[in-house]
Every structure is written in C-alpha cells, then in structure tokens.
Design goal:
Layout (H helix, E strand, L loop, with lengths): L7 H5 L21 E6 L2 H8 L10 E3 L2 E8 L2 E7 L4 H14 L1 E2 L2 E2 L1 E15 L3 E3 L2 E3 L7 E2 L2 H13 L7 E2 L20 E2 L6 E3 L2 E4 L15 H4 L11 H12 L6 H6 L11 E3 L2 H10 L4 E11 L10 H24 L2
Parallel strand pairs: 1-4, 1-7, 7-16, 8-13, 9-14, 14-15
Antiparallel strand pairs: 2-3, 3-4, 5-6, 8-16, 9-10, 11-12
C-alpha cells in the first residue's frame, strides 16, 4: 500500500466498533497444503474474505497475527492481513511458513498477494507485474511463470468480474458493509477496468525497516483486523500500538512525506509489501504472484490531486477488483 500512514489521523476519526465472530486462540494447523493469500490492510482482506468459503469461522491467531482458513477458487487457503509496510509483510509471511507445518516441512504451497497500488495505468485496473524489486531496481524477484500463465488466462477472458462504480466514502468506520442509504452518489469510472499482466513492480519502505503498528479502531485502512474477522482484544491492541508507535516519534510524518518514490516512473505497480513477500516465498522455494489494483493513477473522474486523496476515494473499488482477480486466478490455476 502506498504512503498511507502519513494521513492516519484522517482514518481514525469517527471509527465504529468492529463486529463479527471472535478469533480462536493459537491452534495447531491441520497437516494440509494451503495457498497463503495475503493483504496489507483491512479493506483489502475484507474483499478477499467476502469471496471465500468457510467450513467454520474459526481463525488461528499466532503471535498476534490472525490467519483465516478457508477455500478460494479451487484451493484451500490461509488468508491473513500482513499490516502496512515491508517489515510487517516479511514478518507475517515468515511466521506463516514457520508455524504451518506438515511432516516437518512448510504446509504453504504458494503465496498470492491481493491489494491496491499506485500505477501509471487507470484506476481500477488490476496489475500483475512479472517481477518485483524492493531496492529501487537493483535486484529483482520474478513472479512464478506458471502463475503468470494462469493470470494471462484471466486477463484474456475479459469477464465482468471487475467493477466500474465506487463509493468515494468507502467504509472508513468498518461498518461491514457500508449502509446503502442513497446519500452518496457512486463514482463511475469511464475506463472499464481490466487485468493487465506485465511490467515491473516496486516496493518502497518509507519506514526505514521499522514495523508500523496497526491502530485499534483504525477502520478499514489502519485497523488491526478486517471487519469480517471479528473483534480484537482492544486493551492489548492499544498497548501494542503505543509500544509500536514510539520509534516513529517525533519525526515519522516528516520522514514519511519526504520518502522518495520507487525507481522507474513507469512502474506497473508501486506498493509497500509485495517485494518483501516475494523474497520470503523465493527463499522457501514457493511460487509467488501479486494482484495489485490501481487506487491512484489515471482516469480519475473526480480529478483529485493524486495521493492520498485518490487512495481514500478509490481504495474500496481497487480492493474489490484485486480480490475478484485473485479469486478468478485461484479458480483457473491448477
């Protein structure tokens, strides 16, 4: 996710309590191979969870991170929210490989990321880069060729799985779902969104290797859990937030605003997590692919001045389209 923490205060105001089934304590995972499906923040993961099938709503909490077992497309999956930034993304992915084991080996068969990003393309498009860099293009981690082939099938199908209409309000209070009261006029994108396979993906780290904490009651961007994921232990989450935010005080916002853009102005996708996840998957010799829908890019009918305004206006439609493409991919990929 691009440069979102600089406007955390905007998302925290007016937050409603999260509703849903509570997560279960940490439990030993079943000895079964699963695809790990990751998203960075609540709105992204909510869009994925909305498309999954569950035998039960039992979640698995490990070291403060929650994993949701289910089925998406043709695959058994573990879905989880990494948190914002490369450090969070790396930690969550490594934890999944370390905890979910089968006969001494990692039970994670592949890794898929579903989220939003900045791009030179049109808002709502879903970008699938063929390689990722977390150091400005000095080194690259390739997307799995077999996965790319399946993604190209999804792109070629040109189905109506992607949407063109978006609420500019989204779900900041994590109301799950946002009430359709007719007071907000949906924004219609003139460009029909499509899945685009190709190009380079760049991951930046405005946090300087630090782990940015989630915000208790932080809604669908900065919150600690997707609204479909149930309640959180608010006192414990508050302590974790206060402890985690200390390294970012007092200069965090100035550092964040001044953070350089990823190298390559023609980036197919620019985010803060994918390259970190790709490196962990590569170290584990597991295939990786990322579906990143454009939240700030071209074709804005509201003519907003870029990030963060476009992000907050279009995060919902972009998260929806990324999850739709991810589900379609997992239906096709063998």
């Amino acid at each position: 996710m691009k440069r979102v923490a600089a406007v955390v205060v905007l998302a925290v105001l007016g937050i409603a309590p999260v509703r849903g089934a509570a997560a279960a304590p940490a439990a030993k995972a079943a000895c079964a191979s699963r695809v790990l499906v990751l998203s960075a923040f609540p709105a992204e993961l909510d869009a994925v969870l909305a498309r999954a099938q569950f035998r039960s709503r039992r979640a698995i909490t490990v070291e403060g991170r929650t994993f949701y077992p289910g089925r998406l497309g043709r695959h058994s999956v573990l879905m989880a929210m990494t948190g914002i930034g490369p450090a969070n993304a790396q930690a969550t992915t490594e934890l999944a490989f370390r905890h979910f084991r089968c006969d001494g080996a990692a039970a994670i068969s592949a890794v898929v990321f579903s989220g939003v990003a900045g791009s030179y393309r049109y808002i709502g498009d879903v970008m699938v880069p063929v390689r990722w860099s977390g150091d400005g293009g000095k080194t690259w981690t390739a997307t799995d060729p077999g996965m790319l082939a399946a993604a190209r099938e999804v792109a070629a199908a040109r189905t109506s799985l992607l949407v063109q209409d978006s609420s500019p309000v989204g779900d900041p209070a994590c109301a799950c779902p946002l009430a359709a009261d007719g007071k907000v006029t949906p924004v219609h994108l003139a460009h029909k969104p499509e899945v685009v396979v190709g190009g380079d993906g760049y991951t930046s780290d405005p946090f300087g290797g630090r782990t940015f904490p989630c915000v208790p009651g932080g809604g669908d961007v900065f919150g600690c859990r997707p609204c479909r994921g149930g309640r959180i232990d608010r006192p414990r989450a508050a302590v974790s937030f206060l402890t985690g935010i200390i390294p970012f005080i007092p200069n965090f916002f100035l550092e964040y605003i001044a953070a350089p853009e990823p190298s390559g102005t023609g980036a197919a996708a620019a985010d803060e997590e994918s390259a970190a996840v790709a490196l962990v998957a590569a170290a584990q010799r597991r295939p990786f692919i990322a579906f990143r829908s454009v939240s700030d890019g071209q074709g804005d009918p509201l003519m907003l001045p870029g990030f963060p305004f476009q992000f907050f206006a279009y995060r919902q439609i972009s998260a929806f389209n990324a999850a739709a493409a991810t589900a379609a991919f997992l239906q096709r990929w063998a």
